[in-house]
């Protein structure tokens, strides 16, 4: 049906619309009217060929002329400036035109009234209510079949009034059917448009999130790589692409991980293919802070690598995300610092040896020295020895060669001697030192290094305590091994600083603002001694209440 395919969408609706939409409506109006024009013209031609059977040729042709005038107006009127509700006049005038031609068609061409089906479809498919469309279709079709009686071209009889009533019934049913079908179609189209709009919004939101994610990933200074369960790349940010390119061998623009130049901590030993981080991560292994060097020569870069597995709704492995944190500058800075400490310590050793030698020679003069000089020289010698021990410890820590020789040792005796040595310092500081350790406690440990570790803890307990405070030393053998505890009631350590207490040169903020001397190496040395024994040290502290250090050294079975 030509009319239904070109019915104006917005008949009955007012308001401004975009120019492109108005142009489409103009085209629909013209095409809709053109369908009736062609059909009407063919009907008129057929009627004129049988003019002897027409009741009135002028009236018959006048209906067509009226319609043609409407069609011409549809072609020339500026519909963009005419309210859309006035478009409904076009099919209404078409009803009048069809009515005129049918009134003059006579009995032979009584089917001319069927042309009213086209304006009926127009009205029913427009945005008018179904009841309105049915009413207009019924009244207009009645007017078409009864117009001949009104203008006197046919005699009015009861049979003549009732016989053609089938046409109004058909057109009314057609209007009802088309209106219901059109409204259902409009509802479907509205739902489809809403769905399309939601889909467009979702796609745009997805693109916006993708742009945001891409921008964020390319902004961070960490390389990120996401792979699926089969090892295929899902995502790689700009930082990782640079790192990947830096590790690629010459003349290979897109190498596999097994072909990359990846080396261990010595920067020389290549990492085996089955030990490379991405391959291990694809197998489901979670990596945490693993270090390696990538590339060759001066362009080598150091990376700290971590990974986390992804799982689907069934908790099955779905892939992994690997992060590559470039720590080249950090490692180079640490190397430079270690080199500096090592060089300075070596430079200190020679003059210290000379100073200690001359102090020893001076002390041998004995009675020939002025009164009080021996005491001054002894003070200088003790401090020189302390500085020499500090230099030795710095060199040992820097070289990673803090040597321990565990043997069967009476730890009780060592702790008793350490407590006796610290008791003098504690008494001068107004502190009470209590040794709860057994007098005899046999264990496997390096007696010299263990004594050094305990002395460091007791020294700190004295230095960072308050007058009137307490220090408690305790030790015991358990299933886990040898446990040694040093607890004080001192100034304590802030919670956010606890993880740094064993770092090189670290001193807490409360200590830095006080006059307590130190360089922040005692706890590092203590931890190194405990670690070389295969044990570990922990700390618990509360600012203003005190600190407790616990050493645990595993013991051989039996």
Question: What is the topological layout?
Answer:
Blueprint: H1 2-5, H2 19-49, H3 57-76, H4 89-103, H5 117-125, H6 130-151, H7 158-162, H8 166-219, E1 222-228, E2 233-236, H9 238-247, E3 262-263, H10 277-282, E4 290-294, E5 301-311, E6 317-326, H11 328-364, H12 373-399, E7 407-410, H13 411-428, E8 432-435, E9 442-445, H14 447-463, E10 470-478, E11 481-488, H15 509-512, H16 522-532, E12 536-542, E13 546-553
Parallel strand pairs: 8-10
Antiparallel strand pairs: 1-2, 1-6, 3-4, 4-5, 5-6, 7-9, 10-11, 11-13, 12-13
Helix pairs in contact: 2-3, 3-4, 4-5, 4-6, 5-8, 6-8, 11-12, 13-14, 14-16
Protein described:
The chain has 16 helices and 13 strands. The radius of gyration is 51 Å and the shape is rod-shaped. The chain is 52% helix and 15% strand. The strands form 3 sheets. It has a 6-stranded antiparallel β-sheet, with helices on both faces. It has a 5-stranded mixed β-sheet with strand order 8-10-11-13-12.
Task: Give a nutshell description of this structure.
This protein is an alpha+beta fold. The protein has 16 helices and 13 strands.
Helix content range? 40-55%
Poorly predicted segments: 1-18, 512-519
Largest sheet: 6 strands, antiparallel
What distance lies between the first and last C-alpha atoms, to the nearest angstrom?
103 Å
Strand residues, percent: 5-15%
* Mean pLDDT over the residues: 80
As laid out across the biggest beta sheet, the strand order is 2-1-6-5-4-3
Cα shape? rod-shaped
Question: What would the keywords be for this entry?
Answer:
558 residues, alpha+beta, 6-stranded antiparallel beta sheet
């Amino acid at each position: 049906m030509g009319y239904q395919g070109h019915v104006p969408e917005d008949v009955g609706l007012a308001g401004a619309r975009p120019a492109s939409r108005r142009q489409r409506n103009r085209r629909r109006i013209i095409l809709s009217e053109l369908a009736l024009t062609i059909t009407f013209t063919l009907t008129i031609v057929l009627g004129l060929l049988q003019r002897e059977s027409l009741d009135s040729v002028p009236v018959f042709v006048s209906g067509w002329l009226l319609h043609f005038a409407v069609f011409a107006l549809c072609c020339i009127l500026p519909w963009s400036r005419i309210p859309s509700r006035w478009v409904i006049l076009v099919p209404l005038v078409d009803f009048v035109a069809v009515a005129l031609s049918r009134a003059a068609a006579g009995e032979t061409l009584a089917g001319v009234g069927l042309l009213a089906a086209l304006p009926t479809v127009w009205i029913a498919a427009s945005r008018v209510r179904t009841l309105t469309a049915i009413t207009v279709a019924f009244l207009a079709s009645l007017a078409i079949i009864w117009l001949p009686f009104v203008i006197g071209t046919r005699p009015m009889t009861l049979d003549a009034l009732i016989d053609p009533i089938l046409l109004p019934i058909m057109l009314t049913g057609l209007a009802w059917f088309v209106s219901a079908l059109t409204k259902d179609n409009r509802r479907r189209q509205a739902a489809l448009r809403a769905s399309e709009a939601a889909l467009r919004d979702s796609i745009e939101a997805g693109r916006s999130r993708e742009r945001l994610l891409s921008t964020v990933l390319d902004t961070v200074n960490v390389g990120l790589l996401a792979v699926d369960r089969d090892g295929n790349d899902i995502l790689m940010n700009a930082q990782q692409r640079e790192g990947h390119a830096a590790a690629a061998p010459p003349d290979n623009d897109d190498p596999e991980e097994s072909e990359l130049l990846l080396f261990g901590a010595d920067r020389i030993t290549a990492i085996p293919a089955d030990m490379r981080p991405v391959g291990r991560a694809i197998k489901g292994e979670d990596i945490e802070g693993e270090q390696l060097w990538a590339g060759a020569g001066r362009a080598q870069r150091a990376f700290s690598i971590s990974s986390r597995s992804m799982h689907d709704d069934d908790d099955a492995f779905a892939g992994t995300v690997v992060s590559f944190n470039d720590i080249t500058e950090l490692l180079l800075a640490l190397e430079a610092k270690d080199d500096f400490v090592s060089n300075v310590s070596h430079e200190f050793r020679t003059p210290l040896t000379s100073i200690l030698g001359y102090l020893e020679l001076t002390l041998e003069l004995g009675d020939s020295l002025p009164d009080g000089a021996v005491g001054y020289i002894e003070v200088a010698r003790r401090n020189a020895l302390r500085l020499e021990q500090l230099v030795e410890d710095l060199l040992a820590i820097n070289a990673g060669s803090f040597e321990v020789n565990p043997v069967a040792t009476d730890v009780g005796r060592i702790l008793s001697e350490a407590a006796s040595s610290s008791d003098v310092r504690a008494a001068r500081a107004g502190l009470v030192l209590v040794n709860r350790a057994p007098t005899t406690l046999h264990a496997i440990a390096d007696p010299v290094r263990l004594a050094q570790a305990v002395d460091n803890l007791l020294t700190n307990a004295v230095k960072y305590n308050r007058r009137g405070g307490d220090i408690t030393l305790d030790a015991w053998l358990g299933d886990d091994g040898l446990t040694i505890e040093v607890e004080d009631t001192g100034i304590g350590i802030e919670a956010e600083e606890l993880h740094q207490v064993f770092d090189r040169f670290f001193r807490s903020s409360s200590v830095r603002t006080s006059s307590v001397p130190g360089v922040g190496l005692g706890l590092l040395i203590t931890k190194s001694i405990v670690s070389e024994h295969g044990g570990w040290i922990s700390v618990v502290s509360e600012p203003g209440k005190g600190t407790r250090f616990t050493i645990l050294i595993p013991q051989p079975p039996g």
